[in-house]
Amino acid sequence: MSAILELSSAVRTRRADMGLTQTTLAKLTGLSRATVNQVENGTIRDLSLTRAAKLLGILGLSVTVTAPRPKSHSHQTAKSSALDIAARTASVSYRVSINADQLREVFTTGSVPTDFLPHIYTLLEEAPVSLLASIVEELHLKLGVERTLVWKKMRELARRLKSSRDLWL
Fold this sequence. Notes:
Layout (H helix, E strand, L loop, with lengths): L2 H16 L3 H8 L3 H9 L7 H10 L23 H10 L8 H10 L7 H10 L2 H15 L3 H14 L9
């Protein structure tokens, strides 16, 4: 797949999964709606790396340049799951900590125990979009939850908690 087609597919899919319109995505990125449309349709003639990185960053995606490696040499390093990182991030300023299992429950059911309302608000209001996108991807891959459903739950929670972040409007 060519780079522009891969980019257009990733942007279109992630935007739709997040429940954003092209207009809202354009506002969040500082690009025009026409530019977002051209990217999604693969018809953009010139998109700088800076503009592409900004667009992808808002969607929790990134551009990576790597040299191909033979499969026999590839290995994964052990790392924390997105839910573990998010739980630590959400708990920084609070005496009681939320854990990854509790976050998993919140983002799959939309139900938040009263004690953890501030944690969820903080996460939805301040966490990098890339972390939120990683949570969505993790829930999709590990539990089979549809990405659009997780984004919808996040958006509903953000609205219920009165988040002012443009992402949730």
